[in-house]
Design brief:
By secondary structure, the chain is α/β, with parallel strands linked by helices. It folds into two domains: 191 residues, Rossmann fold (3-Layer(aba) Sandwich), CATH 3.40.50.1820; 57 residues. The chain contains twelve helices and eight strands. α2 crosses α3.
Length: 259
């Protein structure tokens, strides 16, 4: 794992393969491991990924923790690597960071792949934000037993097996326990200031969305498709019904949107 320093924070990153640069950003509570478990190496592609602030062993500045700050970290990494232009992909939180980056640094982005969006131009829904707030406070104070007593768990427990596992698995992740603050902060942030930012995106955009997912509503994909002119929406299987198909369609979309 490589490291670099940006604004006093030590951040981790990794590079694999050679060729066209692809920056692929993980979701909230994830890490570079999430990207490697999703991405199948493509010949001629240079994969760049990073543990964003508050993930893995990367530092975090909680006073200025938002999508703009996370996007600035990604730009700093591209500058460090002397990469002027990149294909950009992100899952969930990574998609929101990618959206912020592309809206402010459009000249640095050849194409944009937004996977399982959990934000649009607004914060998360009150219901999902409540679930994450209770998750964060339980990570801080009590573990899964404390979470089971919260309103957040009552929201999550009736959802898909994948969603329940996604919430509960973080209790065994040291980085998530250490960096519980992110679950309180990011759900109440928006990746972009307004719809106008979406209308100004001038690169090809592919949006991947699936159904049966509390935190990543299919309607968010439809919403982004409606407001981003050069975009296409692709429905992918949800992980409960077809996890292999879910992964395969993500990789097919990566290959298509780059080549």
């Amino acid at each position: 794992m490589h490291k670099f320093i940006h604004r006093g924070l030590t951040l981790e990153y990794e590079i694999s393969g050679k060729g066209i640069p692809l920056l692929f950003l993980h979701g909230m509570g994830g890490s570079v491991r999430q990207i490697y478990s999703t991405y199948e190496p493509i010949e001629g592609i240079r994969l760049i990924t990073m543990n964003q602030q508050g993930h893995g062993d990367s530092d975090a500045d909680w006073e200025h923790y938002d999508f703009r700050s996370l996007a600035d970290d990604a730009i700093a990494l591209l500058d460090l690597l002397n990469i002027e232009k990149v294909y950009l992909a992100g899952i969930s939180m990574g998609a929101a960071v990618s959206l912020n980056l592309a809206s402010r640094f459009s000249d640095r982005v050849s194409g944009l792949l937004l996977i399982r969006n959990a934000w649009t131009d607004k914060p998360m829904s009150e219901e999902v934000a409540t679930a994450y707030y209770d998750l964060g406070m339980s990570l801080k104070n009590g573990g899964p037993e404390a979470f089971y007593k919260t309103k957040g768990w009552n929201i999550v427990k009736g959802c898909s097996s994948y969603t329940k596992q996604a919430f509960l698995s973080v209790f065994s992740e040291p980085s998530c326990i250490k960096n519980w603050q992110k679950y309180l902060i990011l759900p109440n942030k928006a990746p972009i200031a307004s719809l106008e930012a979406l209308s100004k995106l001038n690169m090809p955009v592919t949006i991947l969305a699936n159904r049966n997912d509390l935190c990543h509503p299919y309607e968010y994909g439809e919403y982004l498709r409606k407001h981003i002119a050069q975009s296409v929406l692709v429905e992918i299987p949800d992980k409960d019904k077809d996890s292999n198909g879910h992964k395969a369609m993500i990789n097919q979309s990566i290959l298509s949107f780059i080549r």
